[in-house]
Amino acid sequence: MNIKITVFKYYGLLLAGFVLLAGCGVNKNALKLAPTFVDRQLLDAIDQYKILQSNIDEGVLPRTFSPETKKVINGHNRLWTAGFYIGTLWYLYEFSGDQALRKEAERRLPILEEQKFSTRTHDLGFILYCSYGNAWRLTGNNEYYAVLLTGAESLIKRYNPAVKSIRSWDQTHGKWRFPVIVDNMMNLEYLNWASRESGNPTYGEIAITHANTTLKNHFREDHSSYHVIDYHPETGEVLHKHTHQGFANESAWARGQAWGLYGYTMMYRDTEKKEYLEQARHIADFILNHPNLPEDMIPYWDFNADGIPNTFRDASAGAITASALLELSTFGNDEKSKRYLQAAETMIRSLSASPYKVEKGDKGGFILQHSVGSFPGNSEVDVPLTYADYYYVEALIRYKRLLAGKILQKGH
């Protein structure tokens, strides 16, 4: 047996950070969602994605659904959202063993392969790790492994040692020199994986350095996050603290808070650095204690948006936050950990019902609706989005593993 396959078998569910550990993590008796409820949501998701599959053109991947044309909007393989549809298929295959889902995932994967050479985007974690990462995790196919390592090498070419960060956008919109967005925390898991699997510490060192720089500069005293920090590319000096998708520079864009929560929870799992756990808890507390968080815990698109409560919710922010809180709840047995679990359960329950859950056969086959891509850009406002589906299904898969007595913990 190939050594990489052996490592894959040993680490099992490494991508999501799942391992069997006794005597720690969430007490199964604390779990309030019934196994039948969780399974029902996943089965419904499978039904929807089989409908979605029939609405996608060849050679492209779904992005959203147009309420005007009543059609699925497809996207090219360079979009940051390109990997989520395939990643969701792999999660649903993991749950069901349905070979039709695996076949569709494998058929669409080659659409993304050329992105392994891309040095023009920081989003290779989203594009490749959510798709090829899940594929390799569940199959051990070394062709997928090779794609992932090549992509990781491409990603670190965007790292600037003076700034101590990975550059987010090449487009500066006429006002930035070296923009770094909080979303970039989500691509660090890919680099941590690459270090573990290749034995080359460089990827993980860059991930840690980037996380430390973000921790230093992105967060306010109340532990909310700016969206964009602009750096001087030669000195690393902070030039601007802005937003691009939030309501205002000083507001708390909901999905940005979710990215930070997920990112630092993951970084603690992968490194055991206490400062990352502390930061994840700070962000979680900011979200859960915010006076503008609705009772169903699905946030408005920005915590400080104009017009609350008469503005849009963001189901994608709710799904990302729920998945992150599930993992965060396993890193302790105190009252805060219990609260994180209970909040995640509320979010999952809310997303699994009207108005967020799509009725069977509706919206082209998407699972969730009422997400917001970019409100200031008037782009993808109050529509289904592939990443909302991905993190919602991930949250359900994580919950199933908790029900099975497994915890979300680092896999090495």
Which structural traits does this protein have?
single chain, 412 residues, mainly alpha, two-stranded antiparallel sheet
Provide structural commentary.
By secondary structure, this protein is mainly alpha-helical. It has a domain at 158-242. The chain has 13 helices and eleven strands. The protein has helices spanning 3-11, 35-54, 84-96, 99-108, 124-139, 142-156, 188-198, 202-217, 254-271, 274-289, 315-328, 335-351, 386-403; strands spanning 18-19, 61-66, 71-75, 159-160, 165-166, 179-181, 228-231, 238-242, 371-374, 379-383, 407-408. The strands form five sheets. A three-stranded antiparallel sheet has the order 6-7-8, with no helix packed on it. Strands 1-11 form a two-stranded antiparallel ribbon. α2 crosses α3 and α11 (315-328) packs antiparallel against α12. 52% of the residues are buried. The model is unreliable at 1-23 (pLDDT under 50).
Summary, kept brief:
Keywords: Hydrolase. The chain is mostly helical and 412 residues long.
Describe the SSE topology.
Blueprint: H1 3-11, E1 18-19, H2 35-54, E2 61-66, E3 71-75, H3 84-96, H4 99-108, H5 124-139, H6 142-156, E4 159-160, E5 165-166, E6 179-181, H7 188-198, H8 202-217, E7 228-231, E8 238-242, H9 254-271, H10 274-289, H11 315-328, H12 335-351, E9 371-374, E10 379-383, H13 386-403, E11 407-408
Antiparallel strand pairs: 1-11, 2-3, 4-5, 6-7, 7-8, 9-10
Binding site for substrate: 123, 183, 243, 255, 259, 374
Keywords: Hydrolase
GO molecular function, one term: chondroitin hydrolase activity
